[in-house]
Amino acid sequence: MCGIVGYLGKREAFPILIAGLKRLEYRGYDSAGVALLSSGKDLRVYKEKGKVANLEQLVAGRDLSGTIGIAHTRWATHGEPSEVNAHPHLSQSGRLALVHNGIIENYSALRESLREKGFTFRSSTDTEVLVQLIEYIQQKYSTDLPSAVRISLNKIVGAYAIAVIDREEPDMIVAARKSSPLVVGIGEDNKEFFIASDASPIADYTSQMVYLDDGEIVTIRRGKPIQVINLNNETIDPKIEQVEMDFGKMQKGDFPHFMLKEIFDQPDCIEDCMRGRLLTSKKRIVLSALQLHHKELVEAKRITIISCGTSWHAGLIGKQLLESYCRIPVNVEYASEFRYSNPVIGKGDVVIAISQSGETADTLAAIQLAKEKGAYIFGIVNAVGSSIARAASMGTYIHVGPEIGVASTKAFTGQVTVLTLLSLAIGRERGTIDPETYQQIVTELANIPDKIRKVLKSNEHIEEISKMFTYAKNFIYLGRGYNYPVALEGALKLKEISYIHAEGYPAAEMKHGPIALIDADMPVVCIATDKTLYPKTVSNIQEIKARHGHIIAIVPEGDVTIHKIADDVIEVPETLTCLTPLLSTIPLQLLAYHIAVRKDLNVDQPRNLAKSVTVE
Ligand code: M6R
Questions:
Q1: Is 583 near ligand 1, meaning CB less than 6 Å away?
Q2: How many CB atoms lie within 10 A of CB 542?
Q3: What is the pLDDT of residue 270?
Q4: How far is the CA of 542 from the centre of ligand 1 (A)?
Q5: pLDDT at 250 over 90
Q6: Rounded to the nearest 5 degrees, what angle is found at the Cα of 159, between the Cα atoms of 155 and 160?
Q7: In angstroms, what is the span from residue 613 Cα to ligand 1's centroid?
């Protein structure tokens, strides 16, 4: 994870770097730092433990001048969060400063070898090894910074996005990437340049951007066009793309937290996601991805879904949709397991990669593996232009806008919406869904945003319910069928932001072990919105009641039976079974949110987490 920003140009770098770090804070917030440079002055480095705001306090009254700079916000991998482990890291002589996002896997051997050559290390990070190595190469071969960076990176095993500045070459930034993202922004007439982990810190200044590919090194020199080479020192023609961003969606507005705003954004997000794809007047779904890659998708013999976390939960719902309506067998794999599992996959296989950020290292590596084996990759991604979007053979954006809260909410419902559209569209082409069912689901999908609006009206009721769970130590979430993944997702939301241990189970699995955990201190969230499985779920709820568990039930509007059994009840409008996840997820998001707020926790930036997991 970690976010990096850099600037070289005519303005003061510091305000640009700080604003950029704030946009990237979702990538990690253990510490932050900045290095500033201007001709004739020393390289100045300021860093502080904690958030970017702490760094801002630290630098008050200090010399912040300089038209060149690099900055970093950290999610700790090697070495605890502390000032000394914060980036930028300096080389032995203090000549170089470097920021890094990723992991250097062979840092230990390199550090030993550099120690033998007289280098000393201040931090316990893997990153410091790289800046020392670059300085060592510079000295040994009397070479310039771009060559020293290239030679050093050829000795590195691992993932990196880096930016380096050199006191002795003050009109230059050298940056590079492998398996961690890096974007270069180009200002008018090459008068200024920006680098960042994503486009958000750059888009205020320029829309001309270059997304570096793996193994590419860019040299930025004042007033000159950028130069890109690869690790073999071959020149690469940079592909300049036009990137626009809507920053309106990156504001909290009147909401106290991004997470709450993003929960409330969901009706609009789903409308955006379906716009131009769900043609209600024609009662049809049109997906350009399917038109362009008809054969690969419609004739698929087997589908493998790869993803992590919340996106994996969406994948589990996708499996049920694809199998029901397309009659194609689907496996859902954790990307982190898939990549090391020697999977039986090859030509003719369709792999669907789901990712909000489009940068998750495990998902990206799983895609590369599946690609090497000849599979066709379909991406379901939110972040436009991200690495996964670019690595996929084809794909569909979920179009829910930037998600800032670390706990994923609107991306989940967006992913489920796209998986629903995709399943219906493929099923129709294959003739595996009967026309009446197709029409029914298409018609009902159009009603989902309004039904979510209705669920959101329960916010105060859910807030009220949340009050009694501030001190809970454990939670169980139960669901069946389409709502089993929703139970997993509800439990994940609670764990992430309220630090309460929670587990999701298929409701009927309870009696095979977990029921032993039930007593009067165990809150159990039961999702009973699936009409077909309702009577079965009622029996499961009875089993919990008999053991005095505290039942919070999510039920269809007008329910009578469960009202009589459960301690707390949250109603959601009725809908078709396959669409229930889009409604039953919302109260679980709100419940987790309100419990965390009551516990006075940092809802948007929970401890130990980062929004974009770019390390494995
Ligand atoms: O960006 P991705 O969808 O690939 O991220 C996958 C997970 O890291 C992510 O869903 C994570 O589990 C969230 N924090 C869940 O709220």
A1: no
A2: 12
A3: 96
A4: 34
A5: no
A6: 85
A7: 8
Ligand 1 geometric centre to CA of 610 (Å): 9
Asked whether 363 lines ligand 1 (CB < 6 A), one says: yes
Cis check: omega of the bond before 88, within 30 degrees of 0: yes
Nearest to 338 by CA among 372, 314, 385, 301: 372
Q: Please, what's the b/e burial string for 150-186 (b: 16 or more CB within 10 A of its CB; e: otherwise)? A: bbbbeebebbbbbbbbbbebbbbbbbbbbbbbbbbbb
In ligand 1, the atom with minimum distance to the C-alpha of 360 is 4
**Which atom in ligand 1 lies closest to the alpha carbon of residue 409?**
16
Q: Does 3-247 match 456-603 in CATH topology?
A: no
pLDDT in tens, 582-606: 999 999 999 999 999 999 999 998 9
Segments making up each domain of the chain, as ranges: 3-247, 257-446, 456-603
Catalytic residue among 2, 269, 273, 308: 2
Q: What are the tokens at 552?
A: 């919070």
- Could you tell me which residues come within 8 angstroms of residue 401 by beta carbon, excluding any fewer than 6 positions away? 246, 249, 265, 269, 272, 410
Known catalytic residue at 2? yes
Within 193-308, where are the H helices?
Answer: 258-264, 266-274, 288-292, 294-298
Cβ–ligand 1 distance for 310 under 6 Å, the answer: yes
For residue 291, the one-letter residue type is Q
Decide: helix, strand or coil at residue 287.
coil
Fold of 456-603: Rossmann fold (3.40.50)
CATH no. for 257-446: 3.40.50.10490
Separation of 153 CA from ligand 1 center, angstroms? Answer: 29
* Average model confidence (pLDDT) across the chain: 94
Phi and psi angles of residue 477, each rounded to the nearest 5 degrees, phi first: -120, 130
CA geometry: angle at 243 spanning 240 and 247, to 5°? 155
Taking residues 103-117, report their average pLDDT: 94
Q: Are 3 and 24 in contact, with CB atoms under 8 Å apart?
A: yes
Pick from 555, 553, 487, 533: which is nearest to 313 by CA? 487
| Ligand 1 neighbourhood includes 407 CB (under 6 angstroms) | yes
Tell me which CATH homologous superfamily contains domain 3-247: Aminohydrolase, N-terminal nucleophile (Ntn) domain (3.60.20.10)
3-state secondary structure of 498: helix
Q: Are 283 and 442 a contacting pair, CB within 8 Å?
A: yes
Q: Is the dihedral of CA 500, 505, 509, 512 positive or negative?
A: negative
- pLDDT of 232 reads 97
Q: Is the CB of 613 under 6 A from ligand 1?
A: yes
Q: What ligand 1 atom has the least distance to the C-alpha of 310?
A: 10
pTM: 0.84
Which residue, by CA, sits nearest to atom 9 of ligand 1?
309
How much distance in Å is there from the Cα of 347 to the middle of ligand 1? 28
